[in-house]
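JOB MANIFEST
job_type = single_chain_structure
chain_count = 1
residues = 66
[input]
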Amino acid sequence: MEICIDILQTVNKGYHKPTRIMYKSNLSWIPLCETLNFLTKQGALEVKKIGKKKKYYITEKGKEIL
């Protein structure tokens, strides 16, 4: 749960690229991807694909969780 909150706080601060989220949340790549997928499925984050790149944005539900 703490990891999810940490990622939501990081995205809420304006970090949208997965690599930046990883560094700011002090996570390794695989746990980050699993948690981003989980938060996206729960509706706390939304992902926007620009070409091959992904950017994550917090939703209203994600803000309520925080």
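[summary]
Residues 29-42 form the longest helix (14 residues).
The CA atoms of residues 2 and 8 lie 10 Å apart.
exit_status = 0
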